[in-house]
Amino acid sequence: MKQFILIGLLIAALLAGCGALPNAQPTVDGRTATSTASATATLLPTSTFTLTPSNTAEPSQTATLTKTPKPTKTPKPKEVAGCFSPNGTSGPTAPFKIENWTNQRVTVYINGASRNGNYPIYCTEFVRQGIPPTLTLMWGNYTYMIQFSGRTTVSGSFYINDYDKATMRIFRDKIQIGPFP
Predict the structure, then answer these.
(1) Does the model's pTM come out above 0.70?
(2) Cα three-residue angle 115-153-178, rounded to 5 degrees
(3) Does domain 82-178 have CATH number 3.40.630.30?
(4) Tens digit of pLDDT for each residue in 90-133?
(5) What share of the chain is helix, strand, coil (3-state, %, to 5)?
(6) For a FRET experiment, which of 48, 66, 68, 100 has its CA 20 to 30 Å from that of 161?
């Protein structure tokens, strides 16, 4: 609607600026008399419109650049050695010794459950040559996984069903489990 009003006012202003032609006088020629008159219609504006600024938002301040923070060092989680049995140990148990016959540090993971399955056990041990740890395990079925320096992995399973002391001997090429002296 504003556009039509503005265009109409523009046309009216142009026509008003041109002005009216002066009245033409009839010219008499000896032969014929002709009269030329021009009629020009002019539109006079009835009211004057003044453009007012609209509600425009004021320019905001530009953000300043901030330095990117340097990443912080995240500490490596420490591995915890020992056994975890959420339901405790109940029932018959037996000692289980782990011997390392290699010249490198070995990580042994033992997971299993009691004979009736009600008591899960999760063990992690770091074994160095010459320092054999001894665990107390319930009678039941177990799986083991052995890592040599974090690269090579050997796995297997065993079970305990009596009170005798059992021993796991770890060699570079084999694992022996039995009642060794």
Answers:
(1) no
(2) 45
(3) no
(4) 788 889 999 999 988 899 999 999 888 888 999 999 998 888 89
(5) 10, 35, 55
(6) 100
What is the sign, positive or negative, of the torsion defined by CA atoms of 172, 163, 124, 99? negative
Give Cα separations from 121 to 54, 143, 144 (angstroms): 76, 11, 12
User: What's residue 168's pLDDT?
Assistant: 92
Could you say which residues of the chain have pLDDT below 50? Answer: 33
Locate 77 and state its tokens. Answer: 């989680």
Report the C-alpha gap between 75 and 72 in whole angstroms: 9
Q: Which of 124, 134, 145, 129 is nearest to 77 (CA)?
A: 124
Residue 160, classified by CB atoms within 10 Å of its CB into exposed (0-12), middle (13-18) or buried (19+), is buried
